[in-house]
Amino acid sequence: QVQLVESGGGLVQPGGSLRLSCAASGTFFSLNTMAWYRQAPGSQRELVGTITSGGTTNYQDSVKGRFTIARDNAKNTVFLQMNSLKPEDTAVYYCYAEATRTRWEKLRGYWGQGTQVTVSS
Question: For residue 61, what is the DSSP state?
Fold first, then answer.
């Protein structure tokens, strides 16, 4: 069992910044690629960006240059630094991780519960 808990969401004005955290806990052998998704009201969930176990990142075009994903493998935590926030960034942000629970188990996908980010003046 792997649990992912997001934190750091809240209300911010346009142009402001927020830093989201996602901490993984439970019993697992390894955390591989982790990702941030978001889902705006009335919209489908979309990928924000990914980070591999080695730290290689990829981002959706709409957030490139504004968002940064980082991870602290020692703490099993991934971060999403969001700068220059826009109203269209308003969404519930979800952490996702691919992990193996044991050395022998195949990769499984796990989701956090989500944290609300609201960008409004």
Answer: G
